[in-house]
Amino acid sequence: MIHHNVFNFRVHLVSLLLNILYMEKFDVYSFGALLLELITGRPSLNYPQQSLVIWARPLLNANDLKELFDTYWYW
Asked: What is this enzyme's EC (predicted)?
């Protein structure tokens, strides 16, 4: 009986740790998407067009920041 409880505890502990790690990655991605919305002035999902992250990735890779930023941020 004791071994069963120890095994159960380990299974629940591993499950909890995996969920925490997953949520942390999700939170980081969400924060980045929010920053991208603020910088570009575009919504994150603009149906029927593609997502903001997919739209911005080529601009970031090409270092084309002028095209990426919203005109509101220009001085």
From this structure: 2.7.11.1
